[in-house]
Each structure stands twice: as structure tokens, then as C-alpha cells.
Amino acid sequence: MNGELLKKVVIFLTGQTITTFGSFLVQYAIMWHLTLSTKSGVVLALAAIFGFLPQAIVSVFAGVWADRVNRKMMIIVSDSTIALATLGLALLMLSGVDDLWLIFLVMAVRSVGAGVQMPAVSALLPQIVPAEQLMRVNGINSSIQSALGLLAPVAAAAVYATMSLEAILFIDVVTAVIGISLLAFVAVPTLERAASKDKPSYFSDLKEGMTYIFTHDLVRWVMAIFAIVFLLIVAPSNLSPLMLVRNFGSEVWMLTVLEISFGVGMLIGGILISVFAAKIDRLGAIVATSILFGLLAIGMGFTTNLIVFFSLFFVIGLIVPAFSTSAFTLLQETVEPERQGRVFGFVGIVMSTAMPVGMAVLGPLADVFPVELLLIITGAVTVAIALIAIALPSGKRAIAAAHASTGTLPSSFDKK
């Protein structure tokens, strides 16, 4: 990567890191504020709805926008909107207005902004990163996100203990301004299709994008695996703290170690991906990690030793970057730049809905059946589906398409 391209990537990732850190601070602070001030499960449930649902809904449209406008400006506008909404909430709270509906409204605006940003950021990266460096840059970005996931709760706790919620909201506004300012220095060309005045109608673009996703062998296959893993593994992983409390004890340090184990695993996994990016077969990694997710879930279900439980959760975190980075990179390498916004908009829908949907089903079941049984069942189903996915004719066509687009040799999984 030459110096100019490297500078672009560094500035872009730095800006995204700063804005994401501010967003994490607010996310934790608002949830803690609602928990401590209301002590209401209904309020927390509503907070989850306002925090996730708008993002899922807007992702349907944001993917099309990302293919019709300058993606850099799309990110700047969404960041600015989030910052203004957050600033408005801070000023109103300082004046004594702290109604729940106002907090929920701002959470919804922030969720919409996140839904708009996700496909734009994912589709913009291939415009400034050479194809041969995408896997490495995605791995670095994954490590950064993991590091923020570890640092943000600690920082939020320290700030929340010494400052008011309003002060934390102002911190987020400042980080957003810094991130926007840095992004302004990154030159991102407008795609020829987006600059053209002779574009199809919005809904024609939406229909064409959905048709492409569901008829392209490789894209459809990756999307299906992505959705299955998020539905069957990400949701049960959120039940792991419940299993920990029921089976091993309710001490806070145990829950802390569990979360740190996962976060450190993700951080190390992202670093390994960035170091060994050139040697990783994208599709082979997706298949292997999908099967491993299932086996590890089964292992956690059978575990009666606390250290083993923590270790398995660490390994799950370790392989998350291999799965997600390989899937994102494969899509970035396969999908034409003019369609990437719509494809990643659909990915955003999967990511923002699979976990809540899975939890909506498995959460109540966890009050009827042991969590370990749910982990074993979902893990076994994940392994079975992953094996079936590579055995079906559509899976074999997807594998062939993947190796044709990336120029890699078939892995041992492909030959089975």
C-alpha cells in the first residue's frame, strides 16, 4: 500500500475509532441511567426496541442510498444528525427536561444514524483500500472495535461515576465533531453511477438489489450462513451470563471475567487476522468457524468447570473476527462497487434483527428449559446446517464462485 493510500486508511480508521468510542460511552451511560433511575424491566425492553429496531428498518433503505450518493457525505450527514440529536438531549436535560420519551427518541435517532452508516462505511472501505489489503484492514478494524468494546465500559464507568449523563453526552458530541473533521480530509470519489443523473428510480434500485442478493449464488450463500450464525449462536451467547449465574455463582467478578474473556479473544483474533490475512481462505474460514461456533456452544452446554467455561467463551471471541472479517471481505471482493451499499444494507438488517429475534424466542425458553440444553441444541443445529450448506449443489456453486473471484485454491472443506 503506497503512502497516500495508507494515509487515507489511517485517517479514516482513526476518525471511525473516535466516533465509535463516543457512541459506546453514550450507549453504556444511557442504559445505566435508565437502569438506575427506573429499575424497570419494561423500560429496558423499550430501550432495546428503540436502540435496535430503527436501525433494522432504515437499513433496507440505507443500502440503496449508499449506491446512489457519495458515501463519504452519507457518513458525515448521519454522524452530524446523531451529534445534533445528542446535543439537543444534553441541553434539554440541563434545563431539567429528562422525560423517558425524549431519551427513547434520541436513542431511535442514533439507531437510525447507525443503520445509515453501516452500509456506507462497509462499501466505502473498498474504494480507498486496495483489494489485496482488504482482509488485513478489516482485521485491523475488527481489533480496534474489540479494543473499544473492552475499554468503553471501563471508561464509561469511570466517567459516569464522576460526571453527569449530560457531560457524557457532550463528550460524544465532541468525538463526533473530531471524527467528522478527520473524514472530511479523506478523498473518496463519487461512483460514476451515483454521479449520473440518469439513475433508475429508488424502488427499482431496491428491487434490483434484492434480486441480486437472492439470485447470486455466492452472495446468497454468505448471507444465509451469516444469518444462521447470528440467529443460532449470537443469541445463545447472550444467555451465557444466565447459565453462569445459575450454575457457577452470581458474583460480579465472574460476569466481568466472562465478558473480558470474550473481548480479549476478539481482540487477539482481529490481530491474528490482520497478520495472516494473505494466507486465509475466506470461504474456508467462514465454514470452519461456523462449525466451530456450533461445537463450542455444545461444549459450553456440557461444561461443569468454571475455568473451562471461561476458556470456551474466550475461544468463541477468538474466532468471531475470522468469521465476520472473512464474510465482509469476501462480499467486498465479490460484489461490484455499485451494488455494495445494497448488499451491506441487507447485512445490517441481518445483524440488527437476528439477535433480537433469537433472544425473543430463546429468552422465554430459558425460563422453561436449562440454558445448557438450549446451547447444545442450537450448537448441534449450527453444525448440521453448516455441513449441509457445503454439501448442497448451491453450496458447491458458491464455493466455486468464491475461489473464482478471489483466485484462491479450494480448502479441505471444499473437497468433502
Model description:
The chain is mainly α and 416 residues long. It folds into 2 domains: 1-185, Growth Hormone, Chain: A; 201-406, MFS general substrate transporter like domains (Growth Hormone, Chain: A, Up-down Bundle). The chain is 83% helix and 0% strand. The chain has 16 helices and no strands. Helix 2 (41-66) packs across helix 8, helix 4 (100-128) packs across helix 14 (340-365) and helix 9 packs across helix 16 (393-406). The chain is globular and about 60 Å long. The two termini are 37 Å apart. The relative contact order is 0.14.
Distance between the termini: 37 Å
Count the domains.
Answer: 2
Tell me roughly what share of residues is in helical segments: over 70%
Give the structural class.
mainly alpha
CATH class of the largest domain: Mainly Alpha
- Topology-level CATH name of the largest domain: Growth Hormone, Chain: A
Biggest pleated sheet:
none
How much is the average pLDDT?
A: 85
Strand content: under 5%
**Oligomeric assembly:** single chain
Give the strand tally: 0
Task: Summarize it.
This protein is mostly helical and about 425 residues long.
